[in-house]
Amino acid sequence: MKKFTNLVVIFSILTMVFSMTTLQFGEERKQDLSQKQLIMKNRVPVMMFDIRGKWKLMLTWTMEPPTWEWAFTFTGTKTAGTFKGIQKTHGHEWIGTYTVSGKNVTFNENPPNVTPGTTFPTNSTGKFINKDKMSGTFKNGPDGGTWIATRKILMKPPVKKRFIPIKKPIIEEEKK
Protein backbone atom coordinates (compact mmCIF):
# COMPACT_ATOMS: atom_id res chain seq x y z
CA MET A 1 0.00 0.00 0.00
CA LYS A 2 2.89 2.30 0.82
CA LYS A 3 4.35 1.77 -2.69
CA PHE A 4 1.03 2.71 -4.28
CA THR A 5 0.82 5.90 -2.18
CA ASN A 6 4.40 6.84 -3.21
CA LEU A 7 3.50 6.34 -6.90
CA VAL A 8 0.44 8.56 -6.56
CA VAL A 9 2.52 11.32 -4.91
CA ILE A 10 5.22 11.09 -7.62
CA PHE A 11 2.58 11.16 -10.36
CA SER A 12 0.92 14.22 -8.78
CA ILE A 13 4.24 16.09 -8.58
CA LEU A 14 5.05 15.28 -12.21
CA THR A 15 1.60 16.47 -13.29
CA MET A 16 2.03 19.80 -11.48
CA VAL A 17 5.50 20.36 -12.96
CA PHE A 18 4.23 19.56 -16.45
CA SER A 19 1.24 21.88 -16.13
CA MET A 20 3.42 24.76 -14.85
CA THR A 21 5.86 24.23 -17.72
CA THR A 22 2.99 24.27 -20.18
CA LEU A 23 1.60 27.50 -18.71
CA GLN A 24 5.00 29.15 -18.65
CA PHE A 25 6.16 28.07 -22.11
CA GLY A 26 2.81 27.47 -23.80
CA GLU A 27 2.85 30.51 -26.11
CA GLU A 28 6.45 29.87 -27.13
CA ARG A 29 5.59 26.26 -27.94
CA LYS A 30 2.55 27.30 -29.99
CA GLN A 31 4.73 29.68 -32.02
CA ASP A 32 7.39 27.04 -32.41
CA LEU A 33 4.82 24.50 -33.63
CA SER A 34 3.30 26.95 -36.09
CA GLN A 35 6.78 27.61 -37.53
CA LYS A 36 7.34 23.87 -37.96
CA GLN A 37 4.00 23.53 -39.73
CA LEU A 38 4.94 26.33 -42.14
CA ILE A 39 8.27 24.68 -42.85
CA MET A 40 6.58 21.32 -43.42
CA LYS A 41 3.96 22.87 -45.77
CA ASN A 42 6.74 24.26 -47.96
CA ARG A 43 8.50 20.92 -48.19
CA VAL A 44 6.78 18.70 -50.68
CA PRO A 45 8.22 15.20 -50.79
CA VAL A 46 9.99 14.60 -54.10
CA MET A 47 8.62 11.56 -55.85
CA MET A 48 11.17 9.74 -57.96
CA PHE A 49 9.72 8.77 -61.30
CA ASP A 50 11.10 5.80 -63.22
CA ILE A 51 11.58 6.56 -66.91
CA ARG A 52 13.06 3.16 -67.77
CA GLY A 53 11.14 1.05 -70.24
CA LYS A 54 9.26 1.44 -73.52
CA TRP A 55 7.38 4.62 -74.43
CA LYS A 56 5.37 5.95 -77.37
CA LEU A 57 6.56 9.49 -78.09
CA MET A 58 4.63 11.92 -80.32
CA LEU A 59 6.63 14.92 -81.70
CA THR A 60 4.67 17.87 -83.08
CA TRP A 61 6.87 20.27 -85.05
CA THR A 62 6.33 24.04 -85.11
CA MET A 63 7.40 24.62 -88.74
CA GLU A 64 6.65 21.22 -90.19
CA PRO A 65 3.03 20.10 -90.26
CA PRO A 66 3.39 16.43 -89.41
CA THR A 67 3.36 14.82 -86.03
CA TRP A 68 5.89 12.02 -85.80
CA GLU A 69 5.41 8.90 -83.74
CA TRP A 70 8.45 7.30 -82.14
CA ALA A 71 8.99 4.10 -80.18
CA PHE A 72 11.42 4.97 -77.38
CA THR A 73 13.31 2.70 -74.98
CA PHE A 74 15.04 4.22 -71.95
CA THR A 75 17.71 2.08 -70.25
CA GLY A 76 19.93 2.88 -67.28
CA THR A 77 19.04 4.09 -63.80
CA LYS A 78 16.09 6.16 -62.56
CA THR A 79 18.22 9.33 -62.79
CA ALA A 80 20.38 8.86 -65.92
CA GLY A 81 21.02 6.58 -68.86
CA THR A 82 20.65 6.17 -72.58
CA PHE A 83 17.71 6.03 -74.94
CA LYS A 84 17.00 4.77 -78.41
CA GLY A 85 14.08 5.92 -80.51
CA ILE A 86 12.81 4.54 -83.81
CA GLN A 87 10.45 6.64 -85.93
CA LYS A 88 7.39 4.61 -86.85
CA THR A 89 6.92 5.76 -90.49
CA HIS A 90 10.49 6.28 -91.78
CA GLY A 91 12.52 4.12 -89.40
CA HIS A 92 14.88 6.97 -88.44
CA GLU A 93 16.92 6.23 -85.33
CA TRP A 94 17.34 8.66 -82.43
CA ILE A 95 20.07 7.80 -79.89
CA GLY A 96 21.17 9.82 -76.89
CA THR A 97 21.26 10.27 -73.14
CA TYR A 98 18.64 11.22 -70.54
CA THR A 99 18.53 12.62 -67.02
CA VAL A 100 15.65 12.70 -64.54
CA SER A 101 15.50 14.96 -61.49
CA GLY A 102 12.22 14.69 -59.56
CA LYS A 103 9.56 15.37 -62.20
CA ASN A 104 11.97 17.03 -64.65
CA VAL A 105 13.18 15.09 -67.70
CA THR A 106 15.90 15.98 -70.20
CA PHE A 107 16.95 13.84 -73.14
CA ASN A 108 19.43 14.90 -75.78
CA GLU A 109 20.59 13.39 -79.01
CA ASN A 110 24.32 12.73 -78.92
CA PRO A 111 26.10 14.71 -81.70
CA PRO A 112 27.87 11.68 -83.22
CA ASN A 113 24.47 9.97 -83.51
CA VAL A 114 22.63 12.82 -85.24
CA THR A 115 20.08 11.39 -87.65
CA PRO A 116 21.51 11.20 -91.20
CA GLY A 117 20.27 14.09 -93.34
CA THR A 118 20.04 16.52 -90.40
CA THR A 119 22.68 18.89 -89.12
CA PHE A 120 21.32 19.67 -85.66
CA PRO A 121 20.99 17.46 -82.57
CA THR A 122 17.57 17.38 -80.92
CA ASN A 123 17.41 18.55 -77.29
CA SER A 124 14.26 17.88 -75.26
CA THR A 125 13.05 18.97 -71.83
CA GLY A 126 9.83 18.17 -70.03
CA LYS A 127 8.09 16.85 -66.95
CA PHE A 128 6.29 13.77 -65.76
CA ILE A 129 2.53 14.30 -65.64
CA ASN A 130 2.14 10.98 -63.83
CA LYS A 131 4.19 7.79 -63.71
CA ASP A 132 3.07 6.76 -67.22
CA LYS A 133 2.91 10.11 -69.04
CA MET A 134 5.38 12.92 -69.80
CA SER A 135 5.28 16.07 -71.94
CA GLY A 136 7.57 18.91 -72.90
CA THR A 137 9.29 20.83 -75.66
CA PHE A 138 12.18 20.10 -78.01
CA LYS A 139 14.61 22.15 -80.06
CA ASN A 140 16.26 21.11 -83.31
CA GLY A 141 18.28 23.97 -84.80
CA PRO A 142 15.88 26.74 -85.91
CA ASP A 143 12.84 24.47 -85.49
CA GLY A 144 11.30 22.76 -82.49
CA GLY A 145 7.97 21.85 -81.04
CA THR A 146 6.22 19.86 -78.35
CA TRP A 147 6.21 16.20 -77.38
CA ILE A 148 4.02 13.85 -75.38
CA ALA A 149 5.12 10.40 -74.25
CA THR A 150 3.01 7.58 -72.84
CA ARG A 151 4.42 4.41 -71.35
CA LYS A 152 3.78 1.25 -73.29
CA ILE A 153 2.18 -1.00 -70.72
CA LEU A 154 2.76 -4.61 -71.50
CA MET A 155 -0.43 -6.58 -71.18
CA LYS A 156 -0.23 -9.75 -69.18
CA PRO A 157 -1.57 -12.78 -71.01
CA PRO A 158 -5.07 -13.67 -69.86
CA VAL A 159 -5.27 -16.33 -67.22
CA LYS A 160 -6.75 -19.46 -68.69
CA LYS A 161 -9.71 -20.49 -66.59
CA ARG A 162 -9.95 -24.11 -65.76
CA PHE A 163 -13.32 -25.75 -66.07
CA ILE A 164 -14.05 -28.02 -63.14
CA PRO A 165 -17.14 -30.12 -63.71
CA ILE A 166 -19.58 -30.29 -60.84
CA LYS A 167 -20.84 -33.76 -60.19
CA LYS A 168 -24.52 -34.14 -59.69
CA PRO A 169 -25.28 -35.61 -56.26
CA ILE A 170 -26.69 -39.10 -56.37
CA ILE A 171 -30.05 -39.41 -54.68
CA GLU A 172 -30.87 -42.68 -52.92
CA GLU A 173 -33.94 -43.29 -55.08
CA GLU A 174 -31.90 -43.07 -58.29
CA LYS A 175 -29.51 -45.78 -57.07
CA LYS A 176 -32.26 -48.45 -57.11
Number of helices: 2
Name the CATH homologous superfamily of the largest domain.
Quinohemoprotein amine dehydrogenase alpha subunit, domain 2
User: What percentage of amino acids are in beta strands?
Assistant: 35-45%
Biggest beta sheet attributes: 8 strands, antiparallel, barrel
- Which of globular, elongated, flat, extended, rod-shaped describes the shape? flat
**Helix content range:** 25-40%
- Mean pLDDT over the residues: 77
| Total domain modules | 2
Summing up helix and strand content along with how strands pair, one would put the structural category as: alpha+beta
Please characterize this protein's 3D structure:
The chain has 176 residues and is α+β, with helices and mostly antiparallel strands. It has two domains: 1-43; 53-151, Quinohemoprotein amine dehydrogenase alpha subunit, domain 2 (Lipocalin, Beta Barrel). It contains two helices and eight strands. Strands 1-2-3-4-5-6-7-8 form an eight-stranded antiparallel beta barrel. The longest helix is centred in the N-terminal third of the chain and has 41 residues, at 2-42. Residues 37-42 have low confidence and may be disordered.
What descriptors fit this protein?
single chain, 176 residues, alpha+beta, Lipocalin, eight-stranded antiparallel β-barrel, 2 helices, flat
